[in-house]
């Protein structure tokens, strides 16, 4: 194989420009089916393990929001794509204290805040030159011992703490529910997250709470049915991961 392809393709052999359009149509259809306005949810393209060239193609096809899980990998891609001024980077990976500085400096959003210490460090490390860091609190909605996330019981206290931090802007909630292939079961954890979100909105009517980050390639429709505003699509856009 001497000839390099001029366009990189995801592993299912489809062009990224096509999968981006297909993901957008899938979202539009899900919103129609749920009786929701067409602009009431957006796609976050989850690009972990995928090369910068594919992200650039997605950007050229109109995608602006990208989610990354691994800090070093993400920062390398950010350097390669520094010319794409409108790109918006969301950190959706595990968060330890030693990562907070880089995350605070290099992302617009963090979806995985689940304890006060991490939130405080993100706020302290957020550069004054940038707008406040947008935050979703990750909730362990299916109560899986192996998963990160604040418990539903501890959520109100954490939300209160995050709202008090000067360089953070609490936007909403995020969850990664237990996997189910059954669409009717898929809705339950999304409905539970929506209830927690509505409770928060009721408690803090002045807060800029507008984001429910839930739903992935396998359960996006169920999440849209239950009010998701940001669906995180990896496989559906970039193909399967190794
Ligand atoms: C990898 C990942 C996704 C994307 O999952 P797909 O099933 O590939 O769509 C979404 N959210 C988080 C937090 C992830 O780590």
UniProtKB/TrEMBL annotation:
Cofactor: pyridoxal 5'-phosphate
Keyword Kinase (UniProt): no
CDD domains with a match to the protein in the record: PLPDE_III_Yggs_like
Segments forming domain Alanine racemase N-terminal: 40-241
Pfam families named in the record: Ala_racemase_N
Any GO molecular function: pyridoxal phosphate binding
Gene3D superfamilies: Alanine racemase
Protein purpose: Pyridoxal 5'-phosphate (PLP)-binding protein, which is involved in PLP homeostasis.
Stated name of the protein: Pyridoxal phosphate homeostasis protein
Organism per entry: Kushneria avicenniae
């Amino acid at each position: 194989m001497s000839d390099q392809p001029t366009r990189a393709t995801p592993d299912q052999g489809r062009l990224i420009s096509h999968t981006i359009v297909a993901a957008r149509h899938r979202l539009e259809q899900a919103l129609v089916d749920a009786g929701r306005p067409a602009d009431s949810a957006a796609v976050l393209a989850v690009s972990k393990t995928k090369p910068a060239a594919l992200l650039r193609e997605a950007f050229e096809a109109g995608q602006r929001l990208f989610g990354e899980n691994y800090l070093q990998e993400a920062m390398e891609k950010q350097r390669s794509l520094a010319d794409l001024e409108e790109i918006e980077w969301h950190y959706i990976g595990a968060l330890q204290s030693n990562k907070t500085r880089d995350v605070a400096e290099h992302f617009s959003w963090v979806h995985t805040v689940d304890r006060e210490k991490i939130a405080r460090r993100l706020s302290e490390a957020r550069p004054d030159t940038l707008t406040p860091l947008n935050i979703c609190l990750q909730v362990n909605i299916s109560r899986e011992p192996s998963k990160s996330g604040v418990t539903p019981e501890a959520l109100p206290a954490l939300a209160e703490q995050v709202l008090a931090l000067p360089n953070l802007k609490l936007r909403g909630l995020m969850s990664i529910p237990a996997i189910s292939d059954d669409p009717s079961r898929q809705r339950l954890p999304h409905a539970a997250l929506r209830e927690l979100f509505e409770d928060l909105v009721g408690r803090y009517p002045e807060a800029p709470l507008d984001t429910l980050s839930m739903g992935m390639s396998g359960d996006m429709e169920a999440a849209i049915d239950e009010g998701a505003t940001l669906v995180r699509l990896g496989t559906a856009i970039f193909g399967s991961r190794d």
